[in-house]
Design a protein that fits this description.
This protein has about 350 residues and is an alpha/beta fold. The protein is built from eleven helices and 15 strands. The chain binds phosphoenolpyruvate and manganese (II) ion. Manganese (II) ion (MN) binds next to loops.
Length: about 350
């Protein structure tokens, strides 16, 4: 459970308060972030304690339950978080404002030549962030695992020659250290949303984190995962709905479009959708992207490949540059219709 403490409590009062709870067998951890003073309390008879905690001196609010989060919630911050991702062409790129952003690129960086050509196309068509994955979490150990460390200089080249911001995925703290000077945004994929040691580590990272919803995770679990990163020091978290596993077999996953307005109500963090991984089928990507913009998403993540039929991975859900161009032009109209702008 979380106790929101009166921020006016001085250090001695905080320590005395913690000591009292520790004597009753509770584990406590103080979190002093973003002007909020929180106390994480866990231990025996937590539910019983939650009922009495509200009346203790210095406690402003009690947030009970095993899915408790506060820093990621609207309770902590009423206004939308606007996260600065970097600059493109000398202009700041923010997510969470009235502008919808586009993140586009291949499932995996395959060769320098193909990645550079695609990035240049994306730059011309529109989009602020190039997704270039070099560490690929694959369901089968026999599938292409990405170029690994050898792909990092390619990301540098793409940034230098196109000016696009770079997003790349990391699967463990070691990879996070390796990519930090080569990427503007670090992605935690669906399979790692519940890798809590990684999330804690990313709390110390100075880059924005794009956190994908676990394919079998609830919205509350996603917000708790964001809280892990935030309570360890990094407030720049972008959430991503990328489809969840349901009984439906036609699509690869089911895009939970309702998650967008629900997250917007519960949290101040920006939310994007990934219709490519959600559907697994290229012809469904554009309609789902339109639904995402209409539902209030702050960004799109779209897989694009110069020749989807020969992609090393996820070719069936990748758009070619012409299809991506069409999606962007439709998306601009939908964004305008809901009072926003697609860049
Ligand atoms: C990806 O974005 O490349 C990816 C693997 O996505 P997910 O983790 O959503 O499957
Ligand atoms: Mn992919």
């Amino acid at each position: 459970m979380i106790l929101v403490l009166d921020p006016a409590m001085d250090e001695l009062q905080q320590q005395e308060f913690c000591l009292k709870l520790q004597k009753r067998g509770f584990f406590t951890r103080l979190i002093n972030q973003y002007g909020q003073l929180l106390l994480s309390v866990d231990g025996p008879d937590e539910e019983q304690f939650a009922r009495e905690a509200g009346s203790l001196l210095g406690v402003a609010e009690v947030i009970p339950g095993k899915h408790s989060y506060f820093l990621a919630s609207r309770k902590c911050q009423r206004r939308n978080s606007v996260i600065r991702l970097g600059t493109v062409d000398g202009r700041a790129v923010d997510i969470g404002s009235d502008k919808v952003i586009a993140i586009a690129g291949p499932c995996a960086v395959e060769t320098e030549e193909s990645a550079l050509l695609l990035a240049e196309n994306i730059r011309q068509i529109g989009g602020q962030v190039f997704r270039g994955m070099v560490f690929k979490p694959r369901s089968s150990p026999y599938s292409f695992q990405g170029l690994g460390r050898a792909g990092l200089p390619i990301l540098d080249k793409i940034k230098r020659s196109t000016g696009l911001l770079i997003l790349t995925e990391i699967r463990d703290p070691h990879e996070a250290e390796m990519v930090t000077d080569h990427a503007d945004i670090l992605q935690v994929g669906t399979r790692n949303m519940s890798n809590y040691q990684l999330l804690k580590h990313l709390g110390q990272c100075k880059k924005p984190i794009l956190l994908k919803r676990g394919m079998g995770s609830s919205i509350e679990e996603l917000l708790c995962a964001a809280e892990y990163i935030m309570s360890h020091g990094n407030a720049d978290v972008i959430l991503c709905e990328r489809g969840i596993r349901t009984f439906e077999q036609f699509t690869r996953f089911s895009l939970d479009i309702g998650a967008v307005p629900v997250i917007k109500e519960l949290s101040h963090l920006p939310v994007i959708i990934d219709p490519s991984h959600a559907s697994g089928i290229s012809k469904l990507v554009s309609p789902l992207a339109m639904a995402g913009i209409a539902a209030g998403a702050d960004g799109l993540m779209i897989e694009v490949h110069q020749h989807p039929e020969s992609a090393f991975s996820d070719g069936t859900q990748s758009l070619n540059p012409d299809e991506y161009k069409e999606l962007i032009s439709k998306g601009q109209k939908v964004a305008q219709a809901v009072g926003r702008q697609l860049f």
